[in-house]
Amino acid sequence: MNLTDLLNKKIFTKNDLITLLSLEKESDMNLLFQKADEVKNKYCGSLIHLRGIIEFSNYCRQDCHYCGIRNENDDVNRYRMSIDEILASAEMIFNAGIKTIVLQSGEDTFYKGTDIANIIRTIKEKFDVAITLSLGERTFEEYDEFKKAGADRYLLKHETANEKLYSEIHPHQKLAERISHLKYLKSIGFQVGSGNIIGLPNQTLSDIADDILLCGELNVDMASFSPFICAENTPLSYVENCKLDLALKTSAVARIYLKNVHIPATTALSTLSPDGRKRGLRAGANVIMPTYTPNEYRFNYLIYNNKPGGSEAPQIKLDSLYQLFDELDLAPSGSKGHSMKEAEV
Ligand code: 5AD
Description:
The chain is α/β, with parallel strands linked by helices. It has one domain (14-337): TIM Barrel (Alpha-Beta Barrel). Helices cover 43% and strands 12% of the residues. The chain is built from 14 helices and nine strands. It has helices at 3-7, 14-21, 26-44, 83-95, 113-126, 140-149, 163-169, 175-187, 205-217, 244-258, 267-272, 276-281, 295-298, 314-327, and strands spanning 47-50, 52-57, 100-105, 130-134, 153-155, 191-198, 222-227, 287-288, 331-332. It has a six-stranded parallel sheet. Strands 8-1-9 form a three-stranded parallel sheet, with helices on one face. The radius of gyration is 19 Å and the shape is globular. 5'-deoxyadenosine (5AD) is lined by residues 66-67, 157, 159, 197, 226, 228-229, 231, 268, 303-304.
């Protein structure tokens, strides 16, 4: 089958996904990216959703082999933002016209479920925004508590659908457990985000195809595929960064397969190349997640090396983002950008 026919198929097999992920010729990859852009326009239009991230604590009980803020890394200055600092960042996000606030942290058990619920309630009382939580694994009771407090979404990447690889790089965790959390979150009404890291050692294109298929099986509302970038002082610090082309191909194939989901042009894409995010937005992505963590903390939230988002004021970053949107005939959505699957529920 020629590439155009393959791209126009209605139903894709796992082998189709692997074939698409294997494309190497520039002209072939461009056809894939164009198709992903078409599918994105059909299902998401030309509006890009912005999500403002607050990385409010870098304490973590986990030891993920790829992650710079893993528990065993003693070289990290650990911090927790106060509630007033969190609210000040939330206000900046809201005043910038961004209608989703992502509360992200390491797996920090210092916060009890009630503490997180209080943060959610306080933000919701003050600002008309959607809240996404990205806190790692918590108990099912806590997920209930967060939902009741008004949280809208939960981002919990499965990282890799290869069970063996998952266990190798997550010393205290099991893939089956992760999946049961994702299913539970979905069952209690969270809009759920998952996704993988691309370019892990010993990961194959078949594994990456499985990551995309798993997102489909879980019926996720958002799927994030981040290129692996090595982090200092981690067991994987010797591993080469993911190639930009593979990262773009993964997002594009995911768009073509998953269709009506939100897919971010990840921050990690900009680390691989100055035009990484732009190329992501042309290859199926429809979400950008700018960081609003205060400067005094963000340099301690280095989940990988050279994480961008430097010392520029958020407004300057937004201005350059809006310029990029103009260039690509895109525009910021201005809405909360809820799941595109709501109508199906
Ligand atoms: N490279 C790319 N992504 C990473 N993450 C953590 N460490 C790395 C890394 N070295 C991603 C994981 C995690 C998210 C917060 O950041 O997917 O879920």
